[in-house]
Every structure is written in structure tokens, then in C-alpha cells.
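Quick question: who can interpret this fold?

. . .
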Amino acid sequence: MDEHVCGLRVGQSVPDLKIETFDPVKADFGEVDIAALGKAGKWTVLFFYPADFTFV
């Protein structure tokens, strides 16, 4: 397993991202801006499930 994996560690800053999201409460798609959450003092947990295109 000699793959090069680039990742982030706890406490490192993430790049500025805008992510398309699905809100099950509103049953609608939206967008989250990581930089705006940081400026608002919000904690953010990023979870990626790359196996397929189904909702987790």
C-alpha cells in the first residue's frame, strides 16, 4: 500500500470550500461555505463517504 494520501490533521485549517448539501429537515439542497462558518465562530466536522452517490 504505497499510495500517497494527502489529508488534514486535527487542528489544521481547511482550504476555503463551498459544498453542496442536502438538508433532510427542509428536504432541499443548499450550500455551505466553510470560510463563512469559520468567521461566524462555528465548529465544523467534515465527513466524506466516497463509496457511492447515496445519502448516508
Remarks:
- The chain has a mean pLDDT of 78.
- DSSP finds one helix and two strands in the chain.
- Helices lie at 34-39.
